[in-house]
Amino acid sequence: MESVQTANRTAANRHHFDFPLFAVILIICVFGLVMLFSASYYYAQVKYGSGTYFLKRQLVFFGAGLAMMLGLSFFKFSLWKKLAPYGYAAVLIILAATLIWGVELNGAKRWINIAGFQFQPSEFSKFALVIVLSALMCSKRVYMQSFILGIVPCLVALLPMAVLIIFQPNFSLVIILCLITYIMMYLGGSRLSHRFFLVVVGVLAGLLVIILEGYRLARLTSYLNPTADPTGSNYQTLQSCIALGNGGFFGQGLNYSKQKLLFLPERENDYIFAIIGEELGFVGCFLLLAAYFFAIYRGILIAMRCHDRFGRLLAGGITSVLAVQVLINVGVVTRAIPSTGQTLPFVSYGGTSLMVFMAAMGILLNISRYTEVDPEDAEPERADE
Q1: Which terminal residue of the chain has fewer beta carbons within 10 Å of its beta carbon, N or C?
Q2: 310 and 78 in contact (C-beta within 8 Å)?
Q3: What is the Cα–Cα distance from 246 to 234, expressed in whole angstroms?
Q4: What are the residue ranges of helices labelled H in 49-115?
Q5: Where are the alpha helices (DSSP H) in 49-78?
């Protein structure tokens, strides 16, 4: 009788996604729209003659992202295992096309212009890599302890993406892809000695790439010497620190930022967290980070409760992308790490980033439909169910 009740409870749970995760993502997105409007209004009015210019464009992508998140929450996650090779190949083709036909801004070709909207194809690479690595590690589950049979296929999946993205150039994204691959290898059960070897090789290769490119080396030296060149290479990070310092504990108040009055570059993009700190203070920053932490916690919970290996790896990988990108963006804004060009998920201006992250949350929500609410009563689910 008890086993029948457990089975009924399990079957019922498979029809409902993780509503707390869905709710917190929507809250972060709405908060992001409010802060985007506040951070970008003055600049948009000066440059485009409309204070709502950035908000209107972001709303379009928010609507598309919401539709994708809800739609993908009903798309069974196991199908991504079959689609992984095709999606991976499609992303590689788009990345290559970007190098040829992409729009060049500030010396980088990272965008494709379609009907007046610019898309950043490299944003798809993070989750395409997670999906293909999950599929590889699922099929190679007995080989993950082997460097040749387990680690090398993962590196083969990473290398083409990394090469295409480094030529854009977008070194910070390559670092993120390497971190994601390392985390996925850990989740997949690889040996510590193999991962340590990869870290050593990766650090040496990263240093070589930095030394070979003057602007990357200048960015690193600027980080190590923050008082040097305050009106040049260190200007943006110093202005960001000023914004955070102005905010204090409770902030200057919504829409009362001074740094957004053209003092802080990229105020609506990569450095929007600084505007949040100036207007809403430590309290506002803490609450936003708490919301991210809750979303990451729900993602980890989904991964732990999923008894399908592919679903567990996929949920862990998606959650890792979110965690890594939040840490990197906040680390740059607070000057904990050298400057990079990565958005704050769901908050920064950038339609591709918003849409892709919301779509990824839809996949995570679908995986949550196939988890057990009570792990003690859960029975392992066959991978082909």
Answers
A1: N
A2: yes
A3: 18
A4: 53-72, 79-101
A5: 53-72
Whose CA is closest to 132, among 210, 187, 80, 96?
80
Query: Quick one: CA torsion of 60, 65, 70, 74, rounded to 10 degrees?
Result: 130
- Give how far the C-alpha of residue 133 lies from the chain's centroid of Cα atoms, to the nearest Å: 16
Which two structure tokens, joined as six digits, stand for 252?
């200057």
Of 62, 83, 60, the C-alpha closest to 363 is: 83
The two structure tokens encoding residue 8 = 């009924």
Name the residue among 208, 273, 284 with its Cα closest to residue 243: 273
What are the structure tokens assigned to 309, written together? 């290996």
Question: Residue 157: helix, strand or coil by DSSP?
Answer: helix
Quick one: three-class SS letters along 162-226?
Answer: HHHHHCCCCHHHHHHHHHHHHHHHHHHCCCHHHHHHHHHHHHHHHHHHHHHCHHHHHHHHHHHCC
Where do the structural domains in the chain lie, given as residue ranges? Answer: 2-368
pLDDT of the chain, 385 residues: tens digit per residue:
444 444 444 444 455 789 999 999 999 999 999 999 999 999 999 999 899 999 999 999 999 999 999 999 999 999 999 999 999 999 999 999 988 888 877 677 888 887 667 788 889 999 999 999 999 998 766 788 889 888 999 999 999 999 999 888 888 899 999 999 999 999 998 999 999 999 999 889 888 887 777 667 777 777 777 766 666 667 888 899 999 999 999 999 999 999 999 898 889 999 999 999 999 999 999 999 999 999 999 999 999 999 899 999 999 999 999 999 999 999 999 988 887 878 999 999 988 999 999 999 999 999 999 987 544 444 444 333 3
**Whether this model's pTM surpasses 0.85:** yes
Q: How far apart are CA 27 and CA 30, in angstroms?
A: 5
